[in-house]
Amino acid sequence: MYPFKDLATDKFDGKITFEEIIDLYFFDKELRLLIFDAIESIEVTFRTQLIYFPSMEKGAFWFEDKTNFRNENLWLSHIKELDDKVDHSDETFINHFFSKYDEETPPAWMVFEVLSFGLLSKFYQNIKDSLKFKKEISRHFGIPQPIVLQSWMRSINYVRNICAHHSRLWNKVLTNKPLIPRNPPTIWISEKKPDNSKLYYFLCCLVYLLKQVKSDTDFVQKLERLFTKYPQISKDAMGFPKNWKDEKLWQ
Prior knowledge:
Blueprint: E1 5-6, E2 11-12, H1 18-58, H2 72-87, H3 92-100, H4 108-111, H5 117-126, H6 132-140, H7 146-164, H8 199-213, H9 219-229
Antiparallel strand pairs: 1-2
């Protein structure tokens, strides 16, 4: 209800009905569920690539080598959090590893399975930019610049938490903004300076990543059906331009 109040008088502006507010509530709920489901595909792929490329180049315990990371203090903090996740895990494969081997920490393909998406993105962000595998991971997602991918993953984790905690997303101004890529190799939006604090730009990033990891994604069709179901919902509040459907990314 808050966005429709006159802040000076604490009264409604008279242009909104209770029924419209209820519709907005259900729209926002269904939008969050749709986005949360889409993020799962990206999270699984990101986790897989963060295991595969570094392990192929540096070995199964690459994450324990501080020379692979830019900031040693951050690395120590992330390793401490990783160890805590492993110690408190009840996963069968973790228990089996400790019952069979003497190592203090399981290999990457085990430990990274029990880490949160947020911690995965922190590990990636702290990897030295000069390392080949950091660039290979970003290229796997169709993004030439690792700094852009790490900002997208940070933003995705931020929106994921909004969805998980049932917060309003519809007209949210994103504090964790995804950067704008330079010369992406596949179809992207034509707008040169989009407002990357609005949900529309975040959804563009989401669609772009989904098309890289899941070519048969039906996210766009599901979003359009949601808009059809709630035609009165303002897309302007989400930053959608009037000609958004003309963008090849959305076709």
